[in-house]
Design brief:
6 strands; Knr4/Smi1-like_sf; Knr4/Smi1-like_dom; globular; four-stranded antiparallel beta sheet; two-stranded antiparallel ribbon; Knr4/Smi1-like domain-containing protein
C-alpha cells in the first residue's frame, strides 16, 4: 500500500470520526510477527499493501470492512484467518491458498488469491470475479 493510500485511509477515518463527534473506534495495529503467524496459518504470503494497512490500522471499517487479526468495534471480532477457515469449512469453492478479508452485503467472501488479486465469490452466480488487481487499487476505488 503506497503512502498515498495510507494517507487517504487516514483522512477517511479522521473525517468519519469528525462526522460522528469523536473517535468512533479503537484501532489495533498489528505487528510483523503477528502477520507472519497469520501467513503461516493461511499457508500464503499476504499482499504487502494489506500488511501495511494492518500494520497501520489493524482490522477496521474504511469504507469497506477490512478484517485483520484484531478489529475495531465497528466489525465483528472474527479474524481474517477465522473468516477464511469458516468459508473453506463451509464448502465454498475458494482457491487454496487464499485469505478472506472482507464480506460483501450479500454475505459473499472478498479474498486475496495466491498472487494478491482481490476477488469476490458470488454464491448466486456460483463463480468468482476479479474486483481489483491488488489491495491498493481496491482501496482507491472504495475511497473515491
Amino acid at each position: 500500500m503506497g503512502m498515498t493510500v495510507v494517507d487517504d485511509v487516514r483522512r477517511f477515518l479522521a473525517d468519519f470520526d469528525a462526522r460522528v463527534g469523536g473517535p468512533a473506534r479503537v484501532l489495533w495495529p498489528h505487528t510483523a510477527c503477528e502477520l507472519d503467524a497469520a501467513e503461516a496459518a493461511l499457508g500464503m504470503r499476504l499482499p504487502l499493501s494489506y500488511r501495511r494497512f494492518l500494520g497501520e490500522f489493524g482490522g477496521c471499517w474504511a469504507g469497506l470492512d477490512v478484517y485483520g487479526l484484531r478489529n475495531d468495534d465497528l466489525l465483528q471480532s472474527t479474524s481474517m484467518v477465522e473468516l477464511t477457515r469458516e468459508f473453506l469449512d463451509d464448502g465454498w469453492p475458494l482457491p487454496r491458498p487464499c485469505c478472506v478479508f472482507s464480506i460483501d452485503g450479500a454475505g459473499n467472501p472478498i479474498y486475496f488469491d495466491a498472487v494478491g488479486q482481490v476477488c469476490l465469490f458470488d454464491h448466486d452466480l456460483g463463480q468468482a470475479s476479479l474486483l481489483a488487481p491488488d489491495f491498493d487499487a481496491l482501496m482507491r476505488d472504495v475511497l473515491t
